[in-house]
Amino acid sequence: MNPADIASSALTASTEVSFWHMFWGAHFVVKTVMLGLLAASVWAWAIIVNKFLLLRQAQVAMDRFEESFWSGNSLEDLYAALANRETTATASLFVAAMREWKRSFSTASSSFMGLHARIEKVLDVSIAREVERLESSLLVLASVASAGPFVGLFGTVWGIMSSFRSIAASKNTSLAVVAPGIAEALFATAIGLFAAIPALIFYNILSGRVARSQARMESFADEFSSILSRQIDHHVGRDRAA
Amino acid sequence: MKFRPSDPGAIVSAVAHAALLAATLVVFSDAPQFREAEESVPVEVITNEQFNQIMRGEKTAKETKPLPPRADKISEQTETRPTPVIREAKVDTAAPVQAGKREPDPGQDEKPVPAQPKQAAPTPPPPKAEPVKEPPKPEPPKDAEALEKLKQQQKPEPKKVEAPIPPKIPPRPKEPEPPKLDQVAKLLEQSKDIKPAQKAKTGDEQAMKAKTDPTEISRLLSREQAQQRASTGQQVSQTASLGTATANAPKMSPSLWAALDGLLQDQYKQCWSYLGMSSGQRYIPQIKVEYTKDGTLVGAPSLLNPPSDPSLASLAESAVRAVRRCNPLKIPAQYQPYFEQWRARILRFDPDEMQG
Q1: Parent domain of A182
Q2: Cβ <8 Å between A3 and B29
Q3: Could you say which residues of chain B have pLDDT below 50?
Q4: Cα dihedral: A146, A149, A153, A154 (round 10)
Q5: CA distance B90 to chain A (A)
Q6: Is residue A106 a part of any domain in this protein?
Q7: How many structural domains is chain A composed of?
Q8: Is the separation of the CB atoms in A202 and A76 below 8 Å?
Q9: Residue B6's closest chain A neighbor by CA?
C-alpha cells in the first residue's frame, strides 16, 4: 500500500472528533452510561428548579400567614378564612391545630384533659408532613451527586478497556489510533461530573433552606401551642369557677 | 417524583439541556489541532558586515579537509549498520533455491554452484576467436605494397578489434538472464516446499519473517510532514565559508589593526587639546564615529557615555571637538579593501594616555 494512502486515511480517521462522533463511536456500554448520566442530569436539574420554586412559595406563604396571624385578628376568623383552602407550611399547621381544637369543643363531652397533648401531636405530625413535602426527592440529588462520577468512571474504564483491546487487535500503537477511543471514554466521566457537580452544590443549598423552613415551622408550632395551652387553662379555670 | 403540570422544572431542565447540547455540538464541532512542533536549531546573530564577509569569502583561507556528513547537532545515538546475521540468512536461502532446479531435495544444494562457473566460462573464448578470424582476411593480397598497406591497416585493426571487446563483455553476462527468470519462478515454487524443512534447520528464517512483519512497515513509514531538521553526527561541522567565486572579503590581520589604531591615535592626539586637572574620578569619554572610505565623518560623532559629574563635561566636549577637528582623517590606501571593518568605530579618549 502506498504510504501516502496510509497517512491520508489515518488523517481522515482522526479529524472526526466532534462530540457527536465521539458519542456514536463509543461502545454500547459507554453509550448507555452516557445516556443514563444525561438523563440523570436532566432529572437533577428538574428537581433543582422545582425545589427552588417550592421553597420560594413556602417562604412567601409563611411570611404572609405570620403577618396575618400576628395582626391581632381573631383566630376564629383566620381559621374560617383558611379552612377551606389549600394551605402550606405554617398555615397548614395552624389549620390542623385549630381543627383539633374545634373538634374538642364541638363534642358534648368536651374534655380539656388531653387536649394540649393532642394539639402537640397534631402539630408534630403536620410539621413532619410539610417537611417531607419540602425535601422530597432531594435524595435524588444526593444520589446523583455521589454516584454520577462513579458511573462516569465506569464508562471511562470500559471505553479505555475496549480501546486497548482494539489496539491489541490492530497491532498499531500510534497515538492517532489510540486517542479517539480514549477521548470517547473520558467523555463519559465528563458527563458524570457535569451531572454530579450541580447536583451536589444544589443539594447542599436546598437541604439548608429546608432545614431553615423546618426550624421556622417548629418555632411557630411552639408559639401556637403555648397560646392554645393558655386558652385551655383559661377555659378550665372558667369551668371550675362556674 | 411526580411530574405535575404545575412543576415547570422538568420542562425547564429538558429545554436547558437541549440548548446546552446544541451549543456544545456547535462549539466543540471541531477540535483545535496542535501546532506543528518545530525543532529548535541553534542560530547565531551576525551583523551585516559579517554576513558580507561570509558571502564574499576569503580566497586565501586555508582549505579544510571535507569532513564526514554535515552535522548541526551531536547525535544522541549512533546508527549501526545492518547486522551480518541477516546476510547469513540470505546466503542460506539462496543455496536451496538453486538446488530446486533439478530436485526438490535440499541435499543437492551444492550442485548448481559449479554450474555458475560454466556459464561464466563460455564468455571469454569468443573474443579470442575474433582476432584470429580477422587476420586471415588481409592475407589473400600478395603484392608487397599491398602487404605493407595491410600491415599498416592491421596495426589499427587489432586496436579496433580490441576496442569493441570490452563493451561486448558486459552484455554477454546478461544473456543468462532469461533462463534465470524461469529458474527463479521454479525456485520460488520449490522453495515453498523446502521452507518447512529449513525452518527446523535454522532459526534465521524466523528472524527473516519478523523483518517482514506488516506492522513493522507501518512503523517505519514516517507520518510527520517533511521539514528542515538539524542533521546530527558525531561532531558539529566547523568548516569556514569559502564564499562565492566572484567576491572577496579579506579580514584585517591583528597587525593591520594595531597599525590603524596607532595611526588614528596619532592623528587624534594632534587634534586634541585638553588642559583639565585630572580629578579623582576616572572618566574616559567614548565616542562613536562612522567614516566614509576617504576618512571623512558620516553624521555627527555621538558621545556614548555622558559624564554624570558636570566637572567632567569639559573633557567630554573636548573629545568631541577633537573628533570634529580631525574630520578628514588620513587613512592610507592599504586599508581601503577593509573599509567594512573600520567603517564604524568607538574612540576612547583616555586623558592620562593622551597627555603622557
Answers
A1: 26-241
A2: no
A3: 1-3, 5, 91, 94, 97-100, 108-141, 156-177, 194-203, 205, 356
A4: 50
A5: 25
A6: yes
A7: 1
A8: no
A9: A50
